[in-house]
Amino acid sequence: MLAPPDAARGDATVSLAKSADFAFEIVRPERPDGRTMVLLHGSGGDETSLVRLATRIAPHATLLGIRGRVTQDGRRRWYRRLTPVTFDQHDVCVESEAFARFLGRTALELGIDLDRTVFLGYSNGANLIAATALLHPGLVRKAALLRPMSVLDQPPTPPLAGASLLMIAGASDRTYAPFAPALEQLLESCGAVVDSRSISSDHMIGDEDARIVAEWLAAPPAK
User: Fold this and answer.
1) Please, where are the H alpha helices in the chain?
2) Is beta strand 164-170 parallel, antiparallel or unpaired with respect to 142-146?
3) How far is the CA of 138 from the CAs of 38, 145, 223, in angstroms?
4) DSSP code, position 91
5) Domains, the chain, ranges and CATH?
6) What is the DSSP letter of 147?
7) Radius of gyration (C-alpha) of the chain in whole angstroms
8) CA neighbor of 170 nearest in space, from 196, 132, 192, 193
9) Per-10-residue mean pLDDT, the chain, length 223
10) Residue 13 CB neighbours (<10 A)
11) Which of 192, 145, 198 minimizes the C-alpha distance to 170?
């Protein structure tokens, strides 16, 4: 259940809430355009971490920032990792299922149109979005994935025709960027339209990411 609005940020109304599954924040602009951006933070972040970036990308979108419910080594995450590039497969599937269930229920409660929803994820959060697109086909139709990689050892290959995904890797991100091409190929093999970019950056995100995502959202749909 939503809590009463507890803050005003510029011309936006901010509400913090907690469901049975996830804590989240809703940022409603003064002049909403009907779109919603669902924000999934990276390791160590929370439901507020991507709000500033998302506001720059889509200033009139309603923002739904969600907090991952896994804590590992004192940091919030979306699923447990075994090494920096290997992950607890059971945990990925369980958390993806919980996220999909939460989103379906919360969209109804908040009046969110999932057909006009864009997912924005960074690192750990981007990876959960990609995994959810494969594990729960039809839920993720449009998503911007910042510094992503595939976290599923044996990913399913459902039909993803109609899904549009932007991937942005950091050219000097030596740990994760080498895995981005495999994720791109996997998603394209399922029928998704993938726009993959590499920029002069490491694993951190910033101005260039915001510019690219905003331009990608403003462009006409790929055919």
Assistant:
1) 51-57, 89-110, 124-135, 180-189, 207-218
2) parallel
3) 15, 17, 19
4) H
5) 7-218 (3.40.50.1820)
6) S
7) 16
8) 196
9) 43 75 93 95 97 96 97 97 97 98 92 92 98 97 98 98 97 96 98 98 97 95 64
10) 16
11) 198
